[in-house]
Amino acid sequence: MDKNIYFASDFHLGTPNYAESRKREELIVRWLEFIAPNCSELFLMGDIFDFWFEYAKVIPKGFIRLQGKLAAMADAGIKIYFFKGNHDMWVRDYFTREIGMQIVSDELIIKRNNKKFYLHHGDGLGPGDAKYKFLRKIFRSKLCQWLFARLHPNFGIGIASGWSKGSRAAQKEKEVFLGEDQEWLAIYAKEQLQKEHFDYFIFGHRHLPLDLDLGNGSRYVNIGEWLESCSYGVFDGVDLKLKYFTSTS
Ligand SMILES: [Mn+2]
């Protein structure tokens, strides 16, 4: 591998308001400019947008700098994957057609340089949260999306920005580490390891950058978020590192 693979998630663009989101978007674009020369693949692992709903003929306004930058990177030959998060599960084919990004609905298992990766946004995995797991099925159903699309976008996206304002991300609640035996994505990763070896489990969703040793040469890396940490993962062919981007990087 002569170039790196990058992982980032939970930009939550759109929240908590236009001005702050726009500032964050500009920082993300600077980060993309910073990594692009050394990037072969980019994994955007969910909740890139705090809300996204794609109608058959209409997409939400905004986020044009990010989309333009991603399009330029894809045109330059960088392979980009876009995972559905719990905030932006309603992508259709727009990003694939316009940017060339590959949409990933659930987990993606990849092998690079003899290392095996288990990649997923992280929502709906592990023990507990039965209510969300149930809602996830409904929200992801074709019927639910069809019904929502019947609403006029001014109204539908209006309701959605109400949800978005009530989200944890918008309220900037600080996440705290629960301990390795309580972190549900670590529990989930350990369950997977009973069946099959993975060198790395990479998740987002938790809004808490983590790098946990799961034993037997396996690690769980949570790539964090971009409201506070501006954290990301980078694999250079040998090792996976959790890093932080600052405007002076
Ligand atoms: Mn999430």
TrEMBL record:
Q: Where is the signal peptide?
A: none
The answer to whether keyword Hydrolase applies is: yes
Superkingdom as given in the UniProt entry: Bacteria
Query: Which Gene Ontology CC terms are recorded?
Result: membrane
User: A Gene Ontology MF term for this entry?
Assistant: UDP-2,3-diacylglucosamine hydrolase activity
Task: Report the residue ranges that make up the Calcineurin-like phosphoesterase domain in this protein.
Answer: 4-208
| Name used for this protein in its record | UDP-2,3-diacylglucosamine diphosphatase
Q: Which organism is it from?
A: Pedobacter petrophilus
